[in-house]
Amino acid sequence: MNTIDFEECLKDSPAYRNQLRQAVNHIDMLEDRLEQMFKMCNSVINNGKIFVQEFQKFLKSIFDARELFSTDEVAYKSLGKFGNYLREIQTLFSNLLEQTSHSLLRTLTRMLKEDIKKVKDQGKLFDRLSSDYDIALQKNADASKAKPHLCEDASKILTATRSCFGHTSIDYTYQINVLYNQHKVDLIELFLSYINFHKAFFHQGYELLSIDTEQDFNSITTELTRMRQENAQKQKILEKVHDTNQRRSSTPGDTTTCFPIKSILSSSHYARQLKYDDNRNDGISTDASLSVAKETLSRNPSQQSLSNITNTLTNGIEATKEGYLFKRSHNKFKTWNRRWFSIRNGQLLYMKRNSGNSINDNSQQQSSYSVMILDLRLCTIRASNDHDRRFVFEIISPNSTHLLQADSQIECDHWVNSLQLAISNLFKSPNNGNLHSFTLLPKPYVDDRSNSVLTAKNEIKQEMIKDKIDFVRSITGNDKCSDCDADGPEWASINLGILLCLNCCGAHRGLGVSLSKVRSLHMDTWDLETLIVMGELGNTVVNSIYEANLSNNVKKPSAETDALTRRSYIEAKYVQKAFLRSLPASNQIRSTTRTIKRWSVMKGPISTATLTNEHDDDGTSNSLKVNSRQLLTRRLTGVLENELTADSLSSIWNANIYLYEGARHRSVPTMLHALTLGADKNFLNEHDHGRTPLIQTILSRSVAAAEFLLINNAKINLADEDGKTPLHYATQLANKGRGPIILLLKRGADPLVKDRTGIDACSLSMVIGDPDVITWYRLIALHEQMKEEDADAEKTYISILDDPVYMKEIARTPSFS
């Protein structure tokens, strides 16, 4: 299109009209091209924005994939750098799109919406005025001379219309010429700037990827070369392992065990493998380098004591194992289900095969497990031969017994050993004492910490204490004070077993706790064991001992007696023992006591062979030849074990033997009489294996007699000549009643004291197989470890032993009365 001539415009010649038609056609085509350009540019920008969004997702996937290689420093850092560089490129591309949108689209929009539209609007005005001008010309030509006024009107209209048309045509021609010339310049300038945008984009990208990254890319290339070499070596080793396992799986009866792949691929193993390649022609067997013979597998005894376990792991590191076992359910059908088991953090966990998550997703994998054993330290692991199924072992916890079955005897032994080693390491771990005491309790005890349960238990306990106090009050003679016969005594001397009034109580306090330990019946806290002792004595029984020789010349105080006289009488009675009954003859004590039938304890030390497996010459373990539950003989005897004859007893008769015989016969009054006569409460009877009176009370299973000696400061851990403490004997008799064990533990007995054969009460508890006893002993062991770091560590096991259920066991123990 050429520029329209204004001369032709003024003349409105056909040439002008022809040029005008060409210009209009050109403008229409220009508008179409610009609209198409605008649409395509807008599509490019929109697709670019979509590209940026997808590219951002692509970058996110790179960084997500990088997390899978967090343990590999080279791969982790390299992928991070690549992601950062690509992110910079994406930023540059986003800037290019933004510049294109602000420059190109804005200019095209202006050309279409403003410039071309303005020309077209002017063209529409030109066409309308051109039509009006033609009409005015026609009317002026048609005007008749006979009508001068019409001619004059037509002339005026023609003049006005010609003037408007002339101005409009000139403006229209001007705008067309300006549009034609200006748009050429605008388009050239527009695309020149657009090309400059791309030039800047590629230049910045070049600087980013050539100058700034040169050092990084060189280091990554070096590491990549090294990784390729290492991968080639690993591939060779994996091929050897694969071939070895293929041959092993095709060989029937081969029970060798492969080394873990992780250890094979370790750097220390590289040297051995490369050396193996060099010596391959020397006849070195691949199987020998990658497997362990069956005979070299250690097989620990299934009933091994915790203290005798040989710890093959580093101190403080828990033995871990994972694998499939059959688990017997606790429903009425007793079905066996195959589950995946794992030893982790002192717990035994299990889950179904299809419940697992990604290996790297530790948090989700942990949540897929169910807890079978909350704390392995409170459990006993041993083989179980009482079932038709083979390869079965049991886990005895404080709450229940779980039966598990392995696929072979070797696998069963491995699981038993791993669990026992885990328990041993947990006890030896230096961080063991940092655990909160509540975490050491089995789940029922943790749940019992709720206020409602504690309140209910306290109510039961207080009711038992109240009933026992009422029983003590009802004993003959206890309705009056033991020393002055005052009515309604409300105080007690727990080591003497008497009730006192307030005035006599003050005098007893002056005697000192070594002679009289005073306590209020309604203001002080009472133990059931102490009340049982009070129930064995009473004012009448005690006065028959302390006032046996009270003469008529000595007047017993009354409720109105002054304090000085009262104190003098009480000192004469309990300190000077002026009215004390003398030591009876040996035949008198034997005639007044009765023969008590009880379970006898097997003489001689328990052989360590019963606590460990015997091994044949080939290193394989045999089943126990002696059932551990038969360690305690259950032979009912009509007379006491080692009971002395009348002649032999009379030859050694003294206050100590008197005390010993009283303990043997569960007679608390006899023991009180012996102590008042000066008997040694820690007397070692050389005629009966050096046993103490406290040991005799345990053998007779009398909580009252044992508590009486402990109240009077008997040594609770004093052992006999075989090194056995009272707790050893109480543990051996656990199947006949756990009351003595509860008493000894509450009074501070140590279950870790070993006898001369190296066996402690904790080991004996595993032989007995009582879950509660095992739990008590292990809680005490944990408490001892906690005391090493915190001397004020709470004795959590005391609250367990104070449970009303166990208090009832104490109340059921036999007594002399």
From TrEMBL:
SMART domains reported for this sequence: ANK (SM00248), ArfGap (SM00105), PH (SM00233)
Domain PH: start-end pairs: 318-424
Source species of the chain: Rotaria socialis
Key words, A-Z: ANK repeat, GTPase activation, Metal-binding, Zinc, Zinc-finger
The name this protein goes by in its record: Uncharacterized protein
Record CDD domains: PH_ACAP
Presence of the UniProt keyword Cell division in the record: no
GO molecular function terms listed in the Swiss-Prot or TrEMBL record: GTPase activator activity; zinc ion binding
Each ANK repeat, start to end: 722-756
Keyword Zinc-finger appears in the UniProt entry: yes
GO cellular component terms given for this protein: cytoplasm
